[in-house]
Amino acid sequence: MSAAPPPVIVGAGPAGVRAASVLVAAGLRPIVIDEAPASGGQIYRRAPAGFMRGAAVYGSEAAKATAIHRTFDSLVDRIDYRPQTTVWNLRPGRLYTVRDGVCDELTFGDIVLATGAMDRIVPIPGWTIPGVYALGGAQISLKAQGCVVGARTAFVGTGPLLWLVAYQYLKAGGTVAAVVDTTPFATKARQLFGLLRGGKTFINGLRYVATLRLKGVRITEGAIPVTIVGSTHVTALRWREASGREGSVDCDAVAIGFGLKPESQLADLAGVAMRWNDGQRVWEAARDRDGRTAVEGVYLAGDGSAIAGADAAEIDGALAAYALLADRRVTVPEAAVAELRTRRARLTRFREALDAAFPFPAALAAATADDTLVCRCEAVNAGELRAAARDLDAREVNRAKAFSRVGMGRCQGRVCGPVAVEILAAALGMPTQALGALRAQPPIKPLPMTAAVRLAAE
Amino acid sequence: MSATPAQFRRVAETARPRVAITIDGAPASALAGDTVLTALLVNGRRVRHSDFGDGPRAGFCLMGACQDCWVWTEAGERLRACTTYVADGLAIRTTPEAP
Ligand SMILES: Cc1cc2nc3c(=O)[nH]c(=O)nc-3n(C[C@H](O)[C@H](O)[C@H](O)COP(=O)(O)OP(=O)(O)OC[C@H]3O[C@@H](n4cnc5c(N)ncnc54)[C@H](O)[C@@H]3O)c2cc1C
Ligand code: FES
Description:
Chain A has about 450 residues and is α/β, with parallel strands linked by helices.
């Protein structure tokens, strides 16, 4: 066993931190890579040096954030931690990184991919006007920069994070112009029984909604976003109420979020099969309940493989590390693993209720107007995408990508992918999953020019 | 402070030391720990222009994923504004070269 190279963990969010902790306890010295300057991942992202608010920025999750940060700090001497390092490519047994413009490679035996998630977007006409932000981004700005993204911010989309971030803006002294949720109240109410499984998390959610209402924030549910108004910057958001009436609010910023999607590019490059999650309408990398994949030595944990939230990510991290150890013939504490699996299964059921309570509005995505930009990177609109599908008979998403350039830009379809498949599927009259998943291609994040030049010179 | 309206508003953490930068040649002020994107948007409303001429852009995901916030330094280096921190003397360009 001593000959085996150290295990590698990509991602130092709750999943990666818990995985590292289990591996260190077993006497290993994992390499932990994260492109962020500090550990914590998205939800427990740490503010830069010199910020004073401490754990208070994490609200109800402050204790968990502190626990994750302390755990990671206690491990730092016993792991090979590589912050500010982006993994931009992966081939079997080989990892390609870039830090400060300098490329590096490393050989790995076992790897845990804990790469987290990003916002899922449905393009609303006007969404490229300055002042429109992804919902999670609006939260990062507040937590890690002490800034709100506008003087008057409107929140549009659906999902628990929509209400959470609006609440956090209000608490921080920001002005919430409106919360426009595409999910009708009745859809949520129908999931009450399943949502109750969420316990404290569910109660907190109710508290956020109640506070927003109490403070007189304009709230509308079951609405359809119509347009973001503005030229050099946002000036208003317009929508259509469930009743058919037009709604509108003056604002200088809009935060859009329709749930999250996994950052599964590295798993894809590692050769892990993608599977369709019909409840969330996203492609995710296939793994078993312990994080094992069909590819030997490749383990997945956290929101990077299945969106289930921070508590689930912590459990996933530990389970993946135990799976890795078991596969190396290290004895693992069976009772502890069984307990983790039980807790995880409970969270999965809560997540399923959340997915049903805040469904991704696939029909809205599919109906994106012809002249609305779908791909910000390559400036491709929905009409061009539909034309590519019909005229060139692109019955597979990667063919459509080649024809239309959607998903070929710098972001690799991270933003436009989930919408592009809904538009294509509707245009072709096919089930969305029949189009397949957008394939990842290296570099999965653009290399700084200096790194690319250095690489080419080699 | 410049008179240009800002996109971002500071609501906390304002006691940090000031950092002097320039934006397209004009002196501007930021705080230690600001990302380049924050520095640009507390001083104005845009980060860059779309590569396709369809108008100004001001970042989007704020987490290093969408790549819609790449700017330049006076030295011609490219950097991702939302994941790069300001430093004293940083000279940012929101367009590829001096006009
Ligand atoms: C912007 C945002 C805000 C969120 N806010 C909340 C919230 O307030 N409450 C809540 O319950 N949930 C929130 N979530 C959901 C969140 O995904 C989970 O709660 C939790 O953070 C998942 O933990 P994780 O360890 O799986 O991934 P993350 O915490 O996302 O950690 C993944 C880490 O991997 C790193 N990484 C990814 N790709 C690479 C690469 N190629 N190279 C190097 N490093 C890489 C990232 O830098 C990141 O630090 C948020 C998600 C996002 C995207
Ligand atoms: S704003 Fe998306 S990468 Fe910077």
